Amino acid sequence: MNRRDFVSNSAKALAGTMLFSQNVFAKKKAKHTVGIQLYSVREDMKKDPMATLKKVAEMGYKNVEHANYVNGKFYGWTASEFRKILDDLGLKMPSGHTVFGKGHYVEDKKQFTDTWKKLVDDAAICGQKYVISPWLDIAYRKDFDQLKRFMEVFNKNGELCQSAGMKFGYHNHDFEFSLKLSSVKVYDIMLQNTDPKLVAQQLDIGNMYGGGGRAAELLAQYPGRFELMHVKDEIKSTGEHGGWESAILGVGVIGVKDIIDMGKKSGGTTQFIIEQESYQGKAPLDCIKEDLAMMKKWGY
Q1: What does the pLDDT read at residue 14?
Q2: Which of 104, 189, 281, 298 has the fewest beta carbons closer than 10 A?
Q3: 204 with 172: CB under 8 angstroms?
Q4: What is the rounded distance in angstroms from the CA atom of residue 36 to the CA atom of residue 300?
Q5: In this structure, are residues 237 and 59 in contact, taking their beta carbons and an 8 Å threshold?
Q6: CB-based contacts of 3, cutoff 8 Å, min separation 6
Q7: Residue 241 has what pLDDT?
Q8: Beta strand pairing status for 180-181 and 167-171?
Q9: Pairing of strands 63-66, 92-97
Q10: pLDDT digits (tens, 9 = 90+) for 76-86
Q11: Which residues touch 13 (CB under 8 Å, ≥6 apart)?
Q12: Measured between alpha carbons, how far is 257 from 231 in angstroms, rounded to an integer?
């Protein structure tokens, strides 16, 4: 073999190795997890959180998402106590919900309060990868420039969480799609003024429906932006979210399987968290058991 052939063959071998490595890396990136937002069983968690967590684990759930961080504790437990409980039950908590807003950032000093910094530290202790704010206070959605400025604080929050090995994120409801500021939807303002390297989006595919939001359109408009997804179906209602309420997966109008498949294939969504807030007369624990069975049927 002459030198030219040797170099050529070596280059091809190297390229093949790199392609193999990239394929392996791509498969690792595409790995997804399925979890349950504990707000789905909020009354059970109030009555007996330990027994409820045990039942959730026995159903086959491996991941949970909290919705109760009050006075520096998760469901009444310190971060280290709650982490041990989760570990003992074989559960992980990749993400959690805590509203970020007034009282968490001092504007004139350009710094976060000790209360918020403690939450970030506690989230890290519990093994979270994402710190999710599930609400945008009305004070920050009165005019375009005000919201745009607050999105800079979101980016700073991303830097804070990043320093603790996590990522800050936001979870939508319905007003982000029904409300416009300077003729621009609130959700568009939020996505267009946050750095995706710092701020993740948790797309709630059900909440948005009553406000005119459609998950498939969002996934196509902002590919790769939705690292997390709240998996939810919707049926007509006289109550919440613009005349719609959540129901067992597969019985509503959302077309859930197509949406989660789209999220997965887009390369952006890796965290699929089931959430059901209304139950149509069934027990919440029975509902989330059916929800998990449907996700498994769909291959998740």
Answers
A1: 43
A2: 281
A3: yes
A4: 13
A5: no
A6: none
A7: 66
A8: unpaired
A9: parallel
A10: 999 999 999 99
A11: none
A12: 9
Give me the DSSP letters along 13-81.
HHHHHHHHHHHHHHHHHH--EEEEEGGGGHHHHHH-HHHHHHHHHHHT--EEEE--EETTEETTB-HHH
CA distances from 137 to 38, 53, 156, 172 (A): 22, 30, 18, 12
As given in the structure block, the two tokens for residue 284 are 């919440």
H-only helix segments in 164-283? 175-178, 186-192, 215-221, 240-243, 256-265
pLDDT of residue 26: 43
User: Quick one: pLDDT at residue 98?
Assistant: 98
State the residue for tokens 């790995």.
31
The C-alpha atoms of residue 212 and residue 149 are separated, in whole angstroms, by: 25
Average pLDDT over residues 272-290: 98
Single-letter residue type at 62? K
The helix or strand, by DSSP H or E, that contains position 204, with its residue range, turns out to be strand 199-204
Question: Rounded CA gap, 203 and 191, in Å?
Answer: 12
The pTM of the full predicted model, rounded to 2 decimals, is 0.89
| Average pLDDT of the segment spanning 262-280 | 95
User: From CA 210, how far away is CA 175, in angstroms rounded?
Assistant: 9
% of the chain residues with pLDDT over 90: 86
Among 207, 139, 144, 216, smallest CA distance to 170 is for 207
Confidence of residue 102 (pLDDT cuts 50, 70, 90): confident
Mean local confidence (pLDDT), 138-157: 97
Q: Which two tokens stand for residue 266?
A: 């887009």
User: Would you list the DSSP string of 103-164?
Assistant: TSEETTTTEE-HHHHHHHHHHHHTT-SEEEE----GGGSSSHHHHHHHHHHHHHHHHHHHHT
Query: In this structure, what token pair is assigned to residue 195?
Result: 């750095």
DSSP conformational letter for 9: H
| Overall average pLDDT of the 146-154 stretch | 97
